[in-house]
Amino acid sequence: MRVFYFLLIFSALILAATLMIQNFTQDPTRQLKVMKDMSFFAMSIFCTIFAIVATANLIPKDIEDRTLYTILAKPVPRFEYLFGKYLGGMLVIFVSVTVMTILLSAFLYLRQEALLSDLQEYMQVAEQEAEQAPGAIENEGLDLARVEASSLRAQGPSWSLLAAVVAISLQAMVLGAITLCVSTFASSGLFTVVVAFVVFFVGYIEPVVVDSWRSSPEGISGFSNLLISAVGVVFPNFQSFNLVDGIVAGETLPSGW
What we know:
Order of helices and strands: HHHHHHHHHH
Largest sheet: none
Low-confidence stretches: none
C-alpha cells in the first residue's frame, strides 16, 4: 500500500493553499488561520480514510494470501495477532501524521516570517514618517501594525497545534479499532469499510442531533431518551476529538484536557 504518496499530496495541498490564500485575502492573520484550517482538514481526511480502508484490509489480505493460516498454526495467540495488526496500522498513521505535522510547521513558519518581514518594513517606514511629522494618524497606524505583528506571532507554529494533531490521531486510533473489530467477522472488506464509515458518520452527528432535540420546546420523551442512551453506548462520540476549530481560532485548551 503506497500510503506515503498521500504525504506528497498533503505537501502539494499546503503549497497550493499558500499561493491561493494570497490572492483571496489580504489579511495576514487570516491567511495563516486558513492555512492551518486547510492543513488540519487534509490531515483529518487522510487519517480517517487510512484508518478505515487500510485496517479493513489487514485480515482479508492475510486470508487471501493464506498468511493467516501459517501464523495461527504456530503458538501465536489470536489476541497477539490482532493487536499486532492494529499496532502496525496505527504506527503507519503515527509516522504519516508526524511527517505531515513537520511539513505544516515548516510551511507555516516560512509564511509567517514572510508576512512579518513585510509588516516590519512597513513599520520602519511608518516610524520614520512619524518622527518627521508626528501626528495621531501615524501613531494610530503604528499601533495597528504592532497589534497585527503580535497576532501574526500568535498564529505561527506553537505547542497548541500538537493538541489538534493528538486529537486527530486519537480519533484515527478509535476508528481503526472499530474497523478491525468489524473485519474479524465481516464477510468482505467492502462490508467492513461501509460499516466503519456508517459508525463514524453516526458518531460524528449524534451529539449535534441530541443537542438539537434537547433544545426543542417539546423536549425528549422517555423512549427517545432511552434510544439516545443506547446509541451513545454503541457509537463513540467523535465530536469529542473536534479541537481543530478552537485551536485555529486561538482558544486555549482547559488544563485537564
